[in-house]
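Box 3.1 A note on notation
Throughout this textbook, protein chains are presented in two layers. The first layer is the amino acid sequence; the second is a token string describing backbone geometry. Keep the layers aligned when reading.
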Amino acid sequence: MTLEELVSQLTVKDDGLTVFASEPWTAQSDAMAAPNREGTSQPDTEGRTYLLEAVLIRDVLETWRAHHDGAIPSAQQACEAVIYYAENDTFLYPDEYLP
């Protein structure tokens, strides 16, 4: 499954999952989601690296929508916002919102 497909399928019920993806991260990266395992060993991610928890991905997409007048991001835009957050630990804002 690609990161683009996985991100588009995440729902509130998936908040207990962590997303892993092959680097370099792109919308077409091979991706998987596994249950959060605090205090235990990590799941077999088959070479994929930690991206974000599903609950954070949902927050990233909600913030994107809030700064785009409620628009729903395309799958590509959603992936760009998620990857940006994973790499920079901050949201991807439209140009007019950048400091």
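Strands lie at 17-21, 31-35, 49-53. The chain has one domain: 3-97.
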